[in-house]
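Team,

Forwarding the record for the chain on the shared tracking sheet. I've put the sequence and predicted structure together so nobody has to dig through attachments.
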Amino acid sequence: MIILKSPREIEEMKPANQIVAECHREVAKLIQPGITTQEINDFVARHIVKLGGKQFTKGYNGFPAETCASVNDVVAHGFPSNRPLQDGDLLKLDIVVEYDGWFGDSCWCYAVGEISPEAGKLMKVTKECMELGIAQALPGNRLGDVTSAIQKHAEEGGFSVVRDLLGHGVGRSLHEEPNYEHIGVAGKGIRLKEGMVFTVEPMINEGTFRIMIDDDGWTARTADGKLSAQFEHTIAVTADGPLILTAQ
């Protein structure tokens, strides 16, 4: 069941989502060759508490850290590590915050130092996919309008859209209905209504859309070892258009 939020409840969701956004704003200042994803994770853990929020991911179904830190061919759910980031790496950092019983969720892709033109194009197209999807999150539209805009732009850019990891509703739980793939057909799927709150989080791969999971049960990698990028916002469907709750 999709839980529609009232305007008041959407206002109540903003602090959690803005703590996530503030963490990303501060993380962006730290990204450089030589820093480790464990150091970034530890900074975020401290910053969430400083801003009055609660971390969620550490301990969730056994996940070991406060952030998901996914580098290069790791699509999502990567563990922070003590490996220094290197010039040319792509880091996807996913941050979840709980505040006053509400959740916020956003992943951002960061270029480490000087990246290749191919990696730069992948980042650009992925961010555009997210933005084009969000633009279709209007009352009366279908979920397929969101997902088809993402798929069309990714494939026109020569990339593929991950199928096996899903966007999801957000509210007093991190994962609510709808759960959905970022591919689809315009005019198909559930009707979007005012008060829906969900993530738009396309994961776009340089090669195949297929992924594999490491033995740790979490780390998702591209099946061909090529790069992956992701951008994610939590949004609300409103009468005035999509409201980006995790806007930076």
